[in-house]
Amino acid sequence: MAKEFEGKTIFITGAAKGQGRAVALAFAKEGANVIAFDLGSRIPYPAYNRSSNEDLEKLKDEVEGLGGRIVIFAGDVRNEEDVKLAVSRGVDAFGGIDILFSNAGIAAYGNSWELTSEQWHTLVDINLNGGWLVSKYVIPHLIEKKKGVIIYNSSIAGLRGMNRMSHYAASKHGLVGLARSQAIELAPYGIRVVTLHPTGVNTPMNDGLAELEHTTVEEIAERSAGNLLPVPWIETEDVVEAVKYLAGDKARFITGSQFVIDAGLLTR
Ligand SMILES: NC(=O)c1ccc[n+]([C@@H]2O[C@H](COP(=O)([O-])OP(=O)(O)OC[C@H]3O[C@@H](n4cnc5c(N)ncnc54)[C@H](O)[C@@H]3O)[C@@H](O)[C@H]2O)c1
Question: Which residues pair with 195 in a beta bridge?
Answer without folding.
Answer: 152, 258
